[in-house]
């Protein structure tokens, strides 16, 4: 049953068909009202959600697909079974008090009780809710869901330890219905998320001393910190009661209402020990009133010495300022950066959960606020469009802030994979890669290097123009690699099919080499050096050639090309791609001494 389900899922992950690409763009209308109570001790969250779903597609729907991602972190899930192939038993071995769960206790659709089914059983990360009546274009439906959830004691994209809770996943999350149909997938180690933009109105009932970091802004109650004024002008009106949280909060408990608009997920963390830093960003124009921009919240533990003295606050501030100059204004009232249990980092709308104070990690996860948070690609179908794109942007930031050497390690790895013919097509679903190692190398490292090659080819200013236009045109929509390519072609005035075909959609390899070099005096005090270059691989790229202190660009697609370079002094060597921008599988022939 599981194997059959995964085959069906892969069919959904294939690149967009020509028919799907021709369909007009649409986006479903989603609104969540959630009430939830966290009981510490058993560490169980009890929730009730009212999901209002408006069908903006041209299709008639007979069911809704939802993700219950917490169920990935338990024995017999698709995630746990995939890791067993690599002899990793971490989730398969969790006991009944350790593993995560997310269980429906009741579901109704427009007042009619229904039961969810699980097409990927024994995996239960994808749930199907039948509709008592078919949902035509323009029609709406209200789904009420009761459930219980618990995080795993093993932190991975969620987790709990003592009184610390990272609710990265915790509620039944509606799947995206787009031009390809229902886009659902069992949560796997390779590939992440894809969500519908919507409105979230969430009331949490929890211990009175808990401090909360979260998506959205606080509109009622005490989250454990004082600076909540950025939520003014963002109020959704009185909170509709769902009947789960009635009366007043019990003694020793509190209720906090949080609202978020135009986001495709809602995540939060809680810890009574959290220390809170805050920065209000304001701009004073040459004329006119001062304007308030997105504020910054940072949460960390008293023992987090790398986070204190506002170090992470300053790093978050500096990175966000740089990103706004690159893409455009951050559109939400605030951004939160908090220290989670797990190492590494994960992005959520208006929130990043980081495992360290590393400046590169902070910038990477903040970049995801634009690339996936606002420009919402399908991470498990086109991971290169957020992880690779984000790695490129965060490396660009580090190159300007510190050193261009940040690229060297990944370039060595990529060229080693190219030499051994181990690269795989970048533009494929995450689950289709042969191993987690290759998935990471292709989705993060190779894709980021491809974006860097594009920037080198079109120039920094044109690349900035591409990013600004891409952001302005597509923010708060579901985007694809094709959307980005269209903008890049418009801004450059060039057909870039060849570029994306050879680097993203195929595995063409590049190898330039110097086969002959000679030099002679010109008679006027200078030197004329002739260099012959061969293109040995299938791929083609403009390539820079440095002779002495002069650099030229060779842009012929011929297999063999020769060029003459004039220098004032006699050069000692000729070097191809001296900035190490190209993914050249054999750099041993890129350098030649000049006799």
Task: Describe the model.
The chain has 595 residues and is of the alpha+beta class. Among the domains are: 392-505, Neutral Protease, domain 2, CATH 1.10.390.10; 512-593. Helix 7 (408-419) packs across helix 8 (436-458) and helix 8 (436-458) packs across helix 9. It is elongated and about 95 Å long. The N and C termini lie far apart (68 Å). Mean pLDDT is 94; it is low at 1-15.
What would you say about this model in short?
Helix content is 23%, strand content 32%.
Point out poorly predicted stretches.
Answer: 1-15
> Could you tell me the strand content as a percent range?
25-35%
What value does the Rg take, in angstroms?
A: 26 Å
Strand order of the largest sheet: 5-4-7-2-1-13-16-15
What's the CATH class of the domain at 392-505, please? Mainly Alpha
Secondary structure: number of strands: 31
What attributes does this structure have?
single chain; Neutral Protease, domain 2; 31 strands; disordered N terminus
Strand and helix layout:
Layout: H1 2-13, H2 18-22, E1 29-39, E2 44-54, E3 61-67, H3 78-84, E4 101-109, E5 112-113, E6 126-135, E7 140-150, E8 159-161, E9 164-167, E10 173-174, E11 176-178, E12 181-183, E13 198-207, E14 212-214, E15 217-220, E16 253-263, E17 268-270, E18 275-283, E19 291-300, H4 311-326, E20 334-339, E21 345-348, E22 351-354, H5 359-370, E23 375-377, H6 387-401, H7 408-419, H8 436-458, H9 460-474, E24 477-479, H10 481-492, H11 497-505, E25 512-521, E26 527-535, E27 543-547, E28 550-554, E29 560-567, E30 573-576, E31 591-593
Parallel strand pairs: 1-13, 19-20, 20-22, 23-24
Antiparallel strand pairs: 1-2, 2-7, 3-6, 3-10, 4-5, 4-7, 8-9, 9-17, 11-12, 13-16, 14-17, 15-16, 18-19, 21-22, 25-26, 26-29, 27-28, 27-30, 30-31
């Amino acid at each position: 049953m599981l194997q059959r389900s995964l085959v069906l899922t892969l069919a959904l992950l294939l690149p967009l068909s020509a028919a799907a690409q021709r369909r007009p763009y649409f986006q479903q209308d989603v609104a969540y009202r959630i009430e939830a109570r966290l009981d510490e001790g058993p560490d169980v969250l009890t929730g009730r959600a009212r999901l209002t779903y408006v069908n903006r597609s041209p299709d008639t729907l007979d069911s809704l697909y939802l993700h219950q991602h917490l169920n990935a972190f338990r024995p017999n899930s698709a995630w746990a079974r995939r890791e067993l192939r690599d002899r990793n038993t971490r989730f398969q071995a969790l006991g009944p008090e350790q593993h995560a769960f997310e269980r429906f206790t009741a579901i109704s659709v427009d007042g009619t009780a229904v039961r969810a089914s699980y097409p990927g059983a024994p995996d239960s990360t994808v749930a199907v809710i039948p509709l008592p009546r078919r949902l035509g274009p323009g029609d709406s439906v209200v789904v009420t869901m009761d459930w219980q959830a618990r995080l795993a004691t093993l932190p991975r994209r969620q987790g709990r330890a003592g009184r610390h809770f990272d609710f990265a996943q915790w509620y039944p999350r509606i799947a995206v219905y787009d031009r390809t149909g229902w886009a659902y997938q069992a949560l796997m180690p390779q590939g992440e998320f894809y969500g519908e933009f919507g409105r979230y109105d969430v009331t949490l009932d929890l211990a009175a001393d808990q401090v909360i970091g979260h998506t959205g802004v606080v509109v009622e109650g005490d989250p454990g910190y004082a600076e909540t004024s950025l939520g003014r002008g963002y109020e959704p009106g009185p909170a509709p009661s769902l009947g789960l949280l009635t009366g007043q909060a019990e003694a020793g408990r509190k209720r906090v209402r949080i609202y978020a608009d135009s986001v495709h997920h809602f995540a939060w963390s809680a810890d009574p020990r959290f220390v809170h830093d805050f920065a209000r960003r304001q701009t004073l124009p040459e004329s006119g009133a001062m304007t308030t921009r997105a504020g910054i919240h940072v949460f960390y533990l008293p023992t987090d010495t790398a986070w204190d003295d506002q170090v992470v606050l300053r790093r978050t501030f500096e990175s966000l300022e740089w990103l706004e100059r690159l893409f455009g204004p951050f559109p939400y009232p605030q951004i939160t950066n908090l220290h989670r249990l797990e190492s590494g980092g994960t992005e959520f709308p208006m929130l990043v959960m980081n495992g360290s104070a590393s400046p590169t990690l902070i910038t990477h996860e903040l970049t995801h606020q634009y690339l996936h948070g606002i420009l919402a690609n399908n991470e498990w179908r086109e991971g290169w469009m957020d992880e690779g794109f984000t790695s490129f942007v965060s490396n660009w930031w580090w190159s300007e802030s510190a050193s261009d050497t940040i690229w060297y390690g990944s370039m060595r790895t990529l060229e080693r994979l190219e030499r051994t013919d181990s690269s795989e097509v970048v533009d494929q679903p995450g689950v289709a890669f042969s191993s987690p190692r290759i998935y990471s190398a292709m989705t993060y490292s190779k894709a980021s290097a491809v974006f860097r090659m594009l920037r080198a080819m079109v120039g920094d200013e044109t690349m900035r123009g591409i990013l600004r236009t891409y952001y302005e045109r597509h923010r708060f929509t579901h985007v694809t690699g094709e959307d980005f390519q269209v903008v890049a072609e418009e801004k450059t005035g060039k057909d870039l099919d060849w570029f994306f075909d050879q680097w993203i959609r195929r595995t063409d390899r590049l190898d330039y080499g110097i086969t002959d070099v000679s030099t002679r005096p010109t008679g006027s005090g200078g030197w004329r050096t002739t260099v012959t270059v061969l293109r040995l691989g299938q791929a083609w790229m403009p390539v820079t050639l440095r002779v002495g202190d002069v650099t030229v660009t060779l842009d012929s697609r011929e297999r063999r090309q020769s060029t003459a370079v004039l220098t004032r002094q006699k050069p000692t060597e000729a070097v191809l791609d001296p900035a190490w921008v190209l993914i050249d599988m054999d750099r041993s022939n890129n350098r030649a001494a000049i006799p």
